[in-house]
Amino acid sequence: MWIIAALVADLCLYLFAGQEIALDFLGGYLIELSLSVDNLFVFLSIFTSCGVPEPYRHRVLHYGIIGAAVLRLVFILFGVAIVSRFEWILYLFGLVLVFNGVKMLCTRENQEKSIENSFGMKLVRRFIPVTETFRGNCFFVLKEGKKGKMRRYATPLFAVLVVVELSDILFAIDSVPAVFSVTTNPVIVYTSNLLAILGLRQMYFGLEKLANRFVYVKYGIATVLIFTGAKLVAAMFGRTISTAWSICFIIVALSASMGASLFATKKGSV
Description:
Layout: H1 2-16, H2 19-49, H3 54-85, H4 89-106, H5 119-127, E1 140-144, E2 150-154, H6 156-180, H7 186-198, H8 200-210, H9 217-236, H10 243-267
Antiparallel strand pairs: 1-2
């Protein structure tokens, strides 16, 4: 539904704003959607390592996506304000994207730390006591304290939500500059980001069942990061890559990584 909504929005832009704006929107949307897949794998590892029961994951994702939409707006407005004053920041963004893409290619998957040792849990416990176990899908509960008075306690589910939001901040550092490689129009950047983010909740539960089959997708995502970063750096030397070619490259990179994953897991070689 959200993918169709994005395509309809892109068609409306094409009809009423022209081809260039429509291509910018589609390019930004595809970049954000591809990078969001990596976000989903991280969410899956967080939920698994923290032992979050599946029924409770819906609520965390719901509030996590709302938080992501707000955070992206802040990042985009802040980023556009900086870029409009200091254009060279785009080139720095490009170097960061290339570095993170290469790092993703070279990094092996590590097991997530337990919820007890996570930064999110430590941050929550610094300000409010946390219960030892989940309390349904509640983020906060009233519980009798040491002196017999009722106190408000956070649950581990709230700590998981904090971890999810913190991880999204890290991903925004990559995704927002990546969309800047296509356009710096704040409306196009945010709407393309927003439509990609809104579909994450439904996409997660589909990916959850097929996660073991997409073993090479991270390499496709890393390739997209390196490409978008290189595109920004190339602009420093007067070399430009059209949005149409960028869209084609992103589609090919993701399709190749997904196809290789499905082929490898079907043959049992991974």
